[in-house]
């Protein structure tokens, strides 16, 4: 995992200049498939960075304090905790192997000393508690210091246990397991602004969960047709509005984005707003539908705008204007002439994510790099 940052790298005017910061993990070319990172997610404060890999592990990095000798540099990230989030499973009813690969990680807003995050593979979502322990209790009445039980008849006096300092220990414990609600692979999870609910989305359905209830969820979007031969699009990403707990948005493989209001009906089968950019007929080709598929959608922190990512562009939409995006940033433009080759080796189906920076002034996106 390589990191880049703008701190300590001044650029002319208001331009943002990126420079290499640090690398975590082996730099060898011979990397095991299980060690390949499949998702990354910063905590709300930016002090913690969680990564998930194809082996089902979650590694959390913590930002160190800034160095006084380099006041403009950001602190580096070092390993804070590592734990196994998911294991490979097998669905005997469908004779289907379920991979342990972590698809998404989402942090919950911190409300105590502990941190909470959601992690998911293709079928199962788990809520994890990340907590620190730097003290241990000693002086129990019914057991020795090594943990063995004492004979109650030999206890002649009562003592009050005391807390003694110990080396810092970071513990990750599963608090909830949300399973058996998705027929298809989960591609998105998003925590609601009410801090009590979250959504999970697969190719055809979006479910609403309560963080305290694991045995049931509510289906709020269902685009599965009665006849699967009539299926024309699938859900590719979904997210809650950052401030309005009743508003969510989801994107499709047709390049469209639908905004739904849960106050209108329990099942959001009718959208409140529909965002789609008209296609230029002169530029239409065999690959048009593939490269127009939206792979990610993100609300800005203010909630006024949203950003979508397709194969060749990043688009910024104003929620008050559905007809066209207010900004379009071309990415991978040099690949437009190579779409045929990308189709043959399946690279044209790669999915990319996008995100806003903390001030909503810049957008970041994952892309190929030319070597």
TrEMBL record:
Q: GO molecular function, one example?
A: protein phosphatase regulator activity
Answer whether the UniProt record assigns the keyword Repeat to this protein: yes
What InterPro entries does the record point to?
PP2A_PR55, PP2A_PR55_CS, WD40/YVTN_repeat-like_dom_sf, WD40_repeat_dom_sf, WD40_rpt
- Single GO cellular component annotation? protein phosphatase type 2A complex
Keywords attached to this Swiss-Prot or TrEMBL record, sorted alphabetically, are: Repeat, WD repeat
The similarity comment for this entry is: Belongs to the phosphatase 2A regulatory subunit B family.
PANTHER family per record: PROTEIN PHOSPHATASE PP2A REGULATORY SUBUNIT B
Name this protein carries in UniProt: Serine/threonine-protein phosphatase 2A 55 kDa regulatory subunit B
Q: Which organism is it from?
A: Physeter macrocephalus (Sperm whale)
């Amino acid at each position: 995992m390589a990191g880049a940052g703008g701190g300590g790298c001044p650029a002319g005017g208001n331009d943002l200049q990126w420079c290499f910061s640090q690398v975590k993990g082996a730099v060898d070319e011979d990397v095991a498939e299980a060690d390949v990172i499949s998702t990354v997610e910063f905590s709300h404060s930016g002090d913690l960075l969680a990564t998930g890999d194809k082996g089902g592990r979650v590694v959390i990095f913590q930002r160190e304090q800034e160095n006084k000798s380099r006041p403009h540099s950001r602190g580096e990230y070092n390993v804070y905790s590592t734990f196994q989030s998911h294991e490979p499973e097998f669905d005997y009813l469908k004779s289907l192997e379920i991979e342990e690969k972590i698809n998404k990680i989402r942090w919950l807003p911190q409300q105590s000393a502990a941190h909470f995050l959601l992690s998911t593979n293709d079928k199962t979502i788990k809520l994890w508690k990340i907590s620190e322990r730097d003290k241990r209790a000693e002086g129990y009445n019914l057991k020795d210091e090594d943990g063995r039980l004492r004979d109650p008849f030999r206890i002649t006096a009562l003592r009050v246990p005391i807390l003694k300092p110990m080396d810092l220990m970071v513990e990750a414990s599963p608090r909830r397991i949300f399973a058996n609600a998705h027929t298809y692979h989960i591609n998105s999870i998003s925590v609601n602004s009410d801090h009590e609910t979250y959504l999970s989305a697969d190719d055809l359905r979006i479910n609403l969960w309560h963080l305290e209830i694991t045995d049931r969820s509510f289906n709020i979007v269902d685009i599965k047709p009665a006849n699967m031969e009539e299926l024309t699009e699938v859900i590719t990403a979904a997210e809650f509005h950052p401030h309005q707990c009743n508003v969510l948005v989801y994107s499709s493989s047709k390049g469209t984005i639908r905004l739904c209001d849960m106050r209108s009906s329990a099942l959001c089968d009718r959208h409140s707003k529909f965002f789609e950019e008209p296609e230029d007929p002169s530029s239409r080709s065999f690959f048009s539908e593939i490269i127009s598929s939206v792979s990610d959608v993100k609300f800005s922190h203010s909630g006024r705008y949203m950003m979508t990512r397709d194969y060749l562009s990043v688009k910024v939409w104003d929620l008050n204007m559905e007809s066209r995006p207010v900004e379009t940033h071309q990415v991978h433009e040099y690949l437009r002439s190579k779409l045929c080759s990308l189709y043959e080796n399946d690279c044209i189906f790669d999915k990319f994510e996008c995100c806003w920076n903390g001030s909503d002034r810049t957008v970041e996106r994952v892309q190929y790099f030319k070597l």
